[in-house]
Amino acid sequence: MWTRILRSVRPGALRSVYFGSTYRQGFTTGYKLLPFTLAGAAAATVALYPRAVALEAPHSRLVTETKSSMELPVYITTDATKVSPDGVQLRLVGMGVRTVTFLGVYVYVAALYVDEKAVAAAKPAWAAGNLDLEAQVRSWIEEGTACAVRVMPVRSTDFSHLRDGLLRTVQTRAKDARVPGAAYTLDEAGEAGVSRDVQELKKLFPRCKVTRGQTLDLVVEKTPSGSYILTLQHNGNTLGHVESDPVPSRAFTVPTGLLLAYMGERPDISAALRASVAAGLQHDLP
């Protein structure tokens, strides 16, 4: 904060006139009109007072993923969802490329976005040490915090390619959930619901190309009834929803299984993304 004071004395005036303005970082720019009367003057004079100067506009700031040179916004506002009719504003926590290992080819950039208040509340614990990343995101989802993974192709592809990759990811996570002792469990009672939701997810993808820099957002939210909703959004427009049955805590669902796959090591989608998210929580956000 810094203050600028301008004082001037008009010759012949009965008293001096004081002009003051205060600048505070973080407020929007603008002006206030303040009328005042000079002694001996026949009419009122209007002075412009600068209200504030914004040194940075964080809600429009972009950051660059260095390997792909692709830019991502620090904040996104989702399209309407079944849980949030007005959309929800989410903050970038970390980002990284998905690489085809044996070719070393960058496929897409993935980024995790979470409600900013939840991120701020988690940072003190992370500052004390590196915690379990998947467990952290799982707790956010189960507590009702909106989370999203943004996927941005590095080169042109098509929705069928992205769809097949996401479906394989769900199938891998569902297989792991059938193993006793898994963080999420899938029993016979839940199999029918998961099978139905996999088919629903498959139907959401249009038959068209996705060019470099376009966005595919996987937004996951919990409903008051205890179900989980995955909202698929392309360039900010909703393609559709997949809603699980209401389930007990730690029951596997397609929405939670898909999003949490990006934070786990099986399948290994992007080690760079996991490292960036952990660094954002433990040290500084992008």
TrEMBL record:
<feature type="domain" description="Chalcone isomerase">
    <location>
        <begin position="89"/>
        <end position="123"/>
    </location>
</feature>
<dbReference type="InterPro" id="IPR016088">
    <property type="entry name" value="Chalcone_isomerase_3-sand"/>
</dbReference>
<protein>
    <recommendedName>
        <fullName>Chalcone isomerase domain-containing protein</fullName>
    </recommendedName>
</protein>
<feature type="transmembrane region" description="Helical">
    <location>
        <begin position="33"/>
        <end position="52"/>
    </location>
</feature>
<dbReference type="InterPro" id="IPR016087">
    <property type="entry name" value="Chalcone_isomerase"/>
</dbReference>
<keyword id="KW-0472">Membrane</keyword>
<feature type="transmembrane region" description="Helical">
    <location>
        <begin position="92"/>
        <end position="114"/>
    </location>
</feature>
<dbReference type="Pfam" id="PF16035">
    <property type="entry name" value="Chalcone_2"/>
</dbReference>
<dbReference type="GO" id="GO:0016872">
    <property type="term" value="F:intramolecular lyase activity"/>
</dbReference>
<keyword id="KW-1133">Transmembrane helix</keyword>
<keyword id="KW-0812">Transmembrane</keyword>
<dbReference type="InterPro" id="IPR036298">
    <property type="entry name" value="Chalcone_isomerase_sf"/>
</dbReference>
<feature type="domain" description="Chalcone isomerase">
    <location>
        <begin position="137"/>
        <end position="278"/>
    </location>
</feature>
